[in-house]
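Tokens as discussed.
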């Protein structure tokens, strides 16, 4: 991995879909997939919302000024309530920024143009814009290496990014995840505890902290076979089912872990002060609010709780 970070030129032609309307049906393509290469701002609004009418044009103006370094998607929550509900949007206007398939920044309520410009400038730097010399490409390479199980390469890239930009929150969170992946929980905890106040509020850093909590907890559970045998003899052994979920999580079987916790909520949602539901929420934090498994599990959990 080269340490250079070459950026696209500031005068590059703007893409035709720089600002577009989106929907529940097209959110994955318009936001999640598009954010793999460039930060995407999502403006949740409604026709009846006065502050939305003030904020929207300011966002669009500054997005256009960024000349393609960021993109913008607008979602009318009245016509498209599903994504807004899954992201737990309580009021509008609400703005989320996504990069590499994850929420990385955001705010609620109308903002002065100076704050909007600072918000977009942060995203330009994060995404490898003109001031960032290919930083976004390096972040993507590191994420791919970590997903492939190569924590050494990933941590090397993240460290290079942090040398270039010491406060980069996605790289900081990525480095913590590298330590978690090799079970170096003490150093991961020490790193996360040293986060700056701004880093600590970042969605990826919050997710990394949740992932560390889960990794530490799952390290002490018994073998999957033993726990499966306990459940076979007594399907209402809730402690065994909870521990089995954590054993699955520890072995990388995220979906199986989620399903065991959902089953536990089905059988006894009040068990141990709703520990299964609370653990699912922790999973959602670690996976990220737009992860496909998070979205699926939230729907199933809501169906169980409100059936």
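Sequence:
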């Amino acid at each position: 991995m080269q340490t250079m970070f070459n950026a696209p030129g500031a005068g590059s032609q703007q893409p035709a879909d720089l600002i577009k309307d989106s929907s529940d049906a097209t959110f994955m393509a318009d936001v999640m997939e598009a954010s793999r290469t460039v930060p995407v701002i999502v403006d949740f609004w409604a026709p009846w919302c006065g502050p939305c009418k003030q904020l929207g044009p300011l966002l669009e103006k500054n997005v256009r000024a960024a000349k393609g370094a960021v993109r913008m998607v607008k979602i009318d929550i009245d016509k498209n309530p599903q994504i807004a509900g899954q992201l737990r949007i309580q009021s509008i206007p609400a703005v989320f920024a996504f990069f590499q398939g994850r929420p990385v920044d955001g705010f609620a309520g109308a903002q002065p143009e100076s704050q909007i410009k600072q918000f977009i400038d942060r995203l330009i730097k994060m995404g490898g814009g003109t001031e960032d010399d290919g930083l976004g490409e390096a972040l993507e390479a590191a994420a791919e290496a970590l997903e492939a199980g190569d924590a050494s390469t990933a941590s090397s890239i993240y460290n290079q990014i942090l040398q270039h930009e010491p406060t980069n929150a996605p790289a900081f969170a990525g480095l913590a995840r590298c330590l978690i992946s090799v079970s170096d929980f003490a150093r991961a905890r020490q790193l996360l505890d040293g986060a700056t106040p701004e880093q600590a509020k970042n969605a990826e850093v919050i997710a990394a902290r949740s992932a560390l909590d889960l990794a530490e907890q799952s390290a002490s559970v018994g073998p999957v076979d033993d726990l499966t045998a306990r459940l076979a003899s007594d399907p209402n052994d809730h402690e065994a089912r909870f521990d089995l979920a954590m054993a699955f999580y520890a072995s990388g079987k995220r979906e199986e872990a989620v399903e065991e916790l959902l089953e536990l909520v089905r059988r006894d949602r009040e068990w141990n002060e709703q520990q299964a539901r609370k653990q699912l929420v922790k999973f959602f934090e670690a996976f990220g609010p737009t992860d496909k498994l998070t979205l699926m599990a939230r729907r199933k959990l809501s169906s169980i709780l409100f059936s």
